Amino acid sequence: MSKDNLISHRDLFNYMKSKALEYEAEISEQLTSYRENQSYYSNRDFSKGTMDDLIRSIQNSHVSYLGDFHTHDQNSRNLIRIIKTFLKNKSKFAIGLELVQIDHQSYLDAYLQGFLTELEFLESINYSESWRFPWSHYQILFDYAQKNKIPVIALNTKGDLEQRDQNASRRIIDYANKNPSIPILVLFGELHINANKLPRLVKERSKEMRIRQTIIHQNLDDPYWKIIESGKSIHNYKIIKFNDHEFCLFSSPPWMKYESMCYWYENLLGDPDFDIHEYIIEKGLKLFTEDTYENSIIVVKQVSSFLGFNGSEILEDINIYDHSNLDFIEEKIADISDKRLREIYEEKIKQNKSFHLYNTNILFCSNYSVNRLARLAGSYISHLQVAQQGFNIQKSSSEDFFIYLLYESMYSYISAKYLNPFLKCDMYLDIEMKLRKEENKVKKKIYTAALDLMKDLKKYKKRVKKLKPLEAAEVASIVGEIYGDVLFNNLEEKKLPDYPFFINSSLKLSYENFFKFLEKHILKNNLYKMRRKRFF
Question: Which domains does the chain have, with CATH numbers?
Answer without folding.
Answer: 28-254 (3.40.50.11550), 290-530 (no CATH)
